[in-house]
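stuck on this:

***
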Amino acid sequence: MRTARWAAAFVLAAVLCAPAAAAEKQLLFNGKDLTGWKMTGWGSFAVENGLLKTVDGMGLLYYEPSRFGNCTIRAVFKTTGPHGNSGVIIRMPERPTDAWYGVHNGYEVQIDSQGDEWHATGALYSLSKTKKGFQKPPGEWNTMDITLDGQRTTVRLNGEVINEFEGSQPVPERKMWYEPVRGPRPDSGYIGLQNHDPASVVYFKEISVITGGR
């Protein structure tokens, strides 16, 4: 009987002391070219000194090979001035066919230090407000982690949770044509980067997807 108890205790200790599952990171931008990415809209992205750079007008650069869900999407970015405007698009059900598809069919996780709490960096544009004051000044790198867990979206900026959104929660009434069409989004979808306008130059040095880990 004592031997059985010792065996059970040994198994329990082994489980409790087992190493945590390692997180796996998949780099979507290789630092060299736009392999895997496709552009829609009339703006563009360029690769400059190993960085992704927004160029010209409104557009959407999306990762074409696969959808992503139950993961963390990491975007390391910097703005170049006080009005830098861009966004990370998540939960797109299909590959986008125009620059506005991601806004109206997915969620835009905003990049814009000058917007109000519904339209500033970390907000799900006009749907879920963000906490302000965690973005670094122009020219300094920011790390934004967007965690997809079923219908829950959690946004961290430079290590701070600044937004949590559940897909079924109430959202403000839509007032302008360019605000996203209201409605459900899928648990997983295509992801992309928004190019906003010629005056907004934003750089990205890492776009990755992290899965696993505990």
